[in-house]
Amino acid sequence: MTKQQTTSKYQYVHPDPAGNPEEKLLICPTCGEQLLPADIEAFSTCPYCNTKLEFSNDLEDFILSPLISHWIQAVRNRQTAGRETGYRR
Length: 89
Known about the structure:
Layout: E1 11-13, E2 25-27, E3 34-35, H1 37-40, H2 57-85
Antiparallel strand pairs: 1-2, 2-3
């Protein structure tokens, strides 16, 4: 049986853990700048120092996290609206 790696090669910071605990920023391993998912979504490099960020499942989760959070919120809003109007599928 292989042991799964539980540590990330990247460091993250949560700017507002009380207000939005899901939001996090990636710390560039070279220059230390805080990066948003949109900063590295298309090119996978730090826009400040051009460091290539190696692809990993953790990095993919970081990039997709805002999109997934948006989808989840949209579903919750539809469910809430359905309860308020009495509409059921």
